[in-house]
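Risk mitigation, structural track. In case the binding assays with flavin mononucleotide fail to produce interpretable data, a predicted complex structure has been prepared as a fallback.
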Amino acid sequence: MSFSHLFSPAKIGECSLKNRIIMALFPTKYATESKVNPKITEFYRARARGGAALIILDCPCLDYPRAYKGPHELRFDMEEYATGIKELLNVIHKQGSKAFMQLNYPKERVVGQEIAGAREKEGGWVVSLANAMSLDEADEILEIMANGAGKARETGYDGVEIQASYGDLIAQLLSPVLNKRSDDLGGTIENRALFLTRLIKKVKAAAGRDFPVMIKLVCDEFVPGGLGMDDSRKIAGLVEDAGADAIVANAGNKSTKFITIPTHESPPGPLIDLAAQIKRSVSIPVVAIGKINSPDMADKIIGQGKADFVAMARELVADPDFPQKAASGRVDDINRCVFCLEDCAEKGVPGIGRCCTVNPFAGLEYCWKVSPASKKKSLLVIGGGPGGIQAAVIADKRGHDVELWEQSDQLGGQARLAGIAPFKEEMSEILRYLKHSLNKSNVRVRLGHKADLTEIIALAPDVVIAATGSRSRRPPVPGIDSDLVTDARQVYESRAVTGQKIVIIGGGDIGCETADWLAGHERKVTIVEILPKLITGMKKIPRERLLSRLSEKKVDVFIETQATCIKENTVRLRNKDHEELSIEADMVIIAIRPESEDSLFQALKNKRKQVIAVGDAASPGNIGSALRSATEAALKI
Ligand SMILES: Cc1cc2nc3c(=O)[nH]c(=O)nc-3n(C[C@H](O)[C@H](O)[C@H](O)COP(=O)(O)O)c2cc1C
Ligand code: SF4
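Fallback model:
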């Protein structure tokens, strides 16, 4: 497994790259007061050290204050801001990687009041520039962007990636459905591409002919009447003629973002074929992107001539060392992104921001280091779910003497069930990686060993970690203990479903995923949720996909409604207007937030000096929060 194609050097324009792996833009939004801080620096130091040949960094504000998005956006218009970026680029360069700046301009402009064509956004009014800007304004924006590229070169970036996808300004101009202009920038393909081709020429004029320009190009919008391959192959040719040095074959627009950032619903590498088609139309390098997370797949893309480079965003968030591990054949050591979009999307996780479900260090590289413990301690970890395994592995890496007890005969806890719902098979990869890490450690594992207070006290470990998980809860509804009622975990464990009429109480992620799993096959599924919305905790892309599947499967939904009684195959409901209703049920599944299983922790905390609850035993959450709390605990011992 040498992955010789993936690890052969190549060039984008004049920029020499040590391998074919590019880290696609992952806007961290970590900046404070628009400056680089240690959180950003350490995030990217890890990705550069991990071996990515090229990292795409977010576009600093090019038009301050008119197009300023706020303190989470970097600036480089004044030296006090640019200094931090120069230092960041130095850090990346020292690790042998290169960095391009994404060159973009906001697609909307804030206007003070409601004017023709404006729409309301966050309490103010915005106009969409693609159609609203005059030709003079377009010239002005081109100038600003070209100057931005010149400034990028001055600051030390190795090139720019022009954003012509993601439903942003240039992508809207390229689109036959979104571009409504009838002037020089609308109508024919050449006109729709004119802004982009002029920009490429202007960037070369401002930053130098040898300054690499890569285009992140929307090749298919995947909307009726939208931009498709016939157009985009021609645009690729125009872009090449204008002087571009490489093309990233991207796809989707704002309404099809699930294609741009493919979730677990999508097969691996859904956009590779677009790259292959673009590659046949141009002679400059082409980059494949989208759900590429295995070195084998990446190597084949290059080896089979479908693209010259691969770009990955989330896989390198999940495992910054992917390139190094692949290069040295340590494929099983790679922590795979599971495309959940739980912790990395939108605002990420409160208190941390964008981070990662499977990599507890993402976004915390600046404050978490696995360093040897100052004093070796004996550690007993109770519970072999993700939190317990993670705590044990990290404590072992730090040199502690660790034993892990799991009461069942299998490791994994609730994570064993995470891959059962539709399209969630990839979630089982989390457990594969954790078990693999545990196998490589010195941790002594005892399966089928129920924790007993007397035994723990007799063993007298220096530290006990209670990773005992959570237990299902039942709401106080008359009839809740009848035979009709079960909880989601039991259904996942037993896979036993009774009858055709299923009522699920709780419309959070577990409730809705259970409905997605069980609906259809002539089964009628109803969700009852007390809140005004379903799955409030899920990020927009997976949430919209799940809701659309529920609607396709004709799942009935009652929001702002609670169950008041369960009796003889009937669930009585009451909505917020106190209207009552009865629905028939062959089975009622409770899917409400579980509670911590912390009885062992409570029993031990006054008997042993150091007892720490981690994961769900501390506070029920997702696998990401369990891994982070376990890591934090293990780093403090
Ligand atoms: C949370 C998140 C935010 C993103 N924001 C941007 C963005 O602002 N601009 C952009 O060009 N791509 C953005 N992307 C898309 C990535 O650059 C990449 O094209 C996409 O995630 C597919 O690659 P992957 O499957 O390797 O993650 C974002 C991706 C994620 C996960
Ligand atoms: S949060 Fe999920 S989708 Fe995002 S990088 Fe991590 S594993 Fe991948």
